[in-house]
Amino acid sequence: MCGRFALGLDADDVAASLGAQYFPHHNSEEPSDVEDEEEGHHSPRGRDGSEGEEEEPPVASRSGSRVAPSAGSAGASGSGSTSGRVHWDKSSKESYRSRYNVAPQSRSVVVRRSKTPEPTIELMKWGLIPSWTKRPPTKPLNTINCRSDRLFEGGGMWGSVRGRNRCVIVAQGFFEWLNKGKDKIPHFTKLPDGKLMILAGLFDSVKYQDSEEQLNTFTIITTDVNKQLSFLHDRMPAILTSPNEISLWLSDQPWNPEVQALIRPFEGKLECYKVPNEVGKVQNDSPDFIKPVAERKGNIQAMFAAQASSPSKRTIGSKLKKEIPPPQTTKPLSSSSIKKRDRSSSIEFVVPPEKKAPADTTAGETGDTKVGKKKKRLNYEKKDSVKTDKKGNGLVTSFFQKDE
Known about the structure:
The protein is of the alpha+beta class and about 400 residues long. It is about 20% helix and about 25% strand. It is built from ten helices and 20 strands. Strands 5-1-10-11-16 form a five-stranded antiparallel β-sheet, with no helix packed on it. Strands 6-7-13-12-9 form a five-stranded mixed barrel. Strands 2-3 form a two-stranded antiparallel ribbon. β12 and β13 form a beta hairpin. The radius of gyration is 45 Å and the shape is globular.
């Protein structure tokens, strides 16, 4: 299955990468080889019209069939003509937006041959709608993928378009979710050399009743999964890997065994790794979606990996241990006058000593010495009201004895 893919390049980079990686024989601005007069060899790609120059031979397909070169690639008049190179449809280029999370029912990049042999880059809606549909579907059709076994049977909807409406879908890679218990873990699969991934597909055009607008839609063909990705799913998209394969698939040849042989499990090496869970929501879009989780910025695994690779950095534990000062012991305060320092405000203050109450002079003023002595004992000698003997027993003093 292929239910999500990524294409984060801008429009010019898409065309440049396609031209360099998969459509080199369509690039009319490619410089010609230098003619070797001594050996009598001539450049098969020369476009200056010089005498005796050979025409470009037909392109050999993967299965050995011969496909005629596109107009403008050889023998085209006019130096610097761009009619033979892969190019954008003007309206599609203006409305194209790169996305790292392309979902069904959205528009994405498709390459096909239109009225001329040159490959054209267009935007189409993902989810094929047959040409005979009269009204817009009330719910999405189950046509985002076309199984290879149904395609090979040749009947129904797929049989009506496989001979005339073949296309390729351009992607940087595709997403698939690994079911692990109740969890679904997203993975991203791409080519190891960083090249664009070319997926085999079909398209169709429809005009609804009471509408003059033509809607182009596409589907991605899926095949049995290869051994490498068997842990992830039982299906995978059909991947085309060379200019010859793409040229044969996009040709106007009717459906035949040579064309059908292009749809098979991918035989090369792929890169597959876990990606962030946020890719599960179709409204989310980020370059991080096609990066491994371990390389994501702010990831705890990436943080520890960076620390391990840099010997100058210390671990968190040793750093904290060095920065935290040891605790300081404090002495208990006495009741006498001492100086204290407030560390937060650096203000010094003095604790005053306890003050004793002044002696009662009432007796002296009245002349009653007996009353004065009694009040003095009541006010200032209360602490001596209980005394202990040598054995620690409490003794009552002569508090209430008569004064002599």
